[in-house]
Write a structure and sequence with these properties.
Mean pLDDT: 92
Number of strands: 8
Bound molecules: flavin-adenine dinucleotide
Strand content: 5-15%
Distance between the termini: 27 Å
Order of helices and strands: HHHHEHEHEHEHEHEHEHEHH
Structural class: alpha/beta
Number of helices: 13
Helix content: 40-55%
Strand order of the largest sheet: 3-2-1-8-7-6-5-4
């Protein structure tokens, strides 16, 4: 019940002001976000890499409404990639981008976002790493997949994200399960209408398994983006049945969530990548984490308790 309310709050400027100003918010945010700036984020990458974990970095921001902010996003990613190059972390860390932060929703946004993200993909390729295009609400899927298609012509390892709650996803998974194609499968984190998406969690889970089967049966590189032990076990079973080598797929989890399990999977020989968000614009990301799990919300609310 609370999930949809929190997802609506994730897009409310008024709620953003109230929550961001609350003094006790910050320590809770820090559980999910690796700092406000590049420097602490790089320290996090180094620590995770030392523990045998790969990383995808997200410079937080979304839904930009002017070109200057969209260009600032591009510049932040270029600085990030330059730092990864300088620190020789290109083999451990890739980057995840939200096209809405690159101006996708502006008039002519497709071309604005494509032009900027292409510059990011060029630098990523140059330093031996990759870009993955995060997936946002359903109205952006066609445009994001079109940008993906264009980027893949020159940068074939550019990654996509598919959300199992969308009815269309099995078709998209079939189209993307081709050689060299990197696809992160997630359940989906936005508030979507019943006309386009499963509403019942059980149906989202079943759809996740169907899409997993398609991706693992194909020639691409599946990226299993879930904390769900059942989905992880099914992916392991599909990999074993398909005789997949450990470097032909990977698991992905969010920074701060199931950290012991992240390390266990890596120690067992799986490729495990942690999605590490950083930056000052953490509000939307943070609210989606609260929405998807009551325990995360309880953790947040407890921090306001006078007994703490
Ligand atoms: C790497 C990564 C990238 C993502 N990128 C996107 C994206 O681009 N677009 C998008 O829409 N969404 C994205 N998401 C979010 C995703 O859509 C889900 O909202 C989120 O992952 C929750 O779904 P779940 O599969 O992890 O498990 P859920 O269905 O939320 O939970 C299932 C089970 O997993 C376990 N679990 C889940 N969370 C926890 C926790 N905090 N602590 C302990 N156990 C837990 C529990 O056993 C739980 O019952 C991403 C997620 C990941 C991991």
């Amino acid at each position: 019940m609370l999930g949809p309310v929190l997802l609506a709050a994730a897009r409310s400027d008024r709620m953003r002001r109230v929550i961001a100003a609350a003094p006790l918010t910050r320590p809770v945010v820090n559980r999910f976000v690796a700092g406000d700036a590049l420097h602490p984020a790089l320290a996090t990458v180094r620590a995770l890499a030392a523990a045998g974990l790969d990383v995808t970095l997200d410079h937080l921001g979304e839904d930009v409404t002017d070109k200057a902010t969209a260009h600032a996003t591009r510049d932040a990613y270029l600085r990030l990639l330059e730092s990864l190059r300088d620190e020789r972390l290109g083999d451990r860390a890739e980057v995840s981008v939200k096209l809405s932060a690159f101006g996708q929703a502006l008039p002519g946004g497709h071309d604005i976002a494509l032009d900027s993200v292409r510059q990011v993909a060029e630098l990523a390729t140059e330093i031996g790493t990759t870009v993955t295009l995060d997936m946002e609400d359903h109205t952006t899927v066609d445009s994001t997949l079109a940008v993906l298609g264009e980027l893949r012509r020159e940068h074939p390892r550019t990654g996509a994200v598919l959300q199992s709650y969308l009815f269309r996803t099995e078709d998209d998974a079939r189209a993307l399960a081709t050689a060299g194609s990197r696809v992160r499968l997630v359940k989906g984190a936005y508030k979507e209408p019943a006309s386009v998406a499963h509403q019942d969690k059980k149906d989202v889970d079943l759809a996740y398994v169907r899409a997993l089967r398609i991706l693992f049966a194909g020639d691409g590189y599946p990226m299993v983006g879930s904390h769900d032990p059942r989905m992880i076990a099914i992916a392991q079973e599909l990999a074993a049945r398909g005789h997949r080598a450990p470097d032909t797929y990977e698991f992905q989890m969010l920074y701060g969530i199931r950290t012991a399990e992240q390390r266990r999977l890596a120690q067992d020989g799986a490729r495990m990548r942690i999605y590490v968000p950083y930056g000052a614009d953490w509000y939307g990301y943070f609210m989606r984490r609260l929405a998807e799990r009551p325990a995360n919300l309880a953790f947040f609310l407890r921090s306001f308790s006078p007994t703490r």
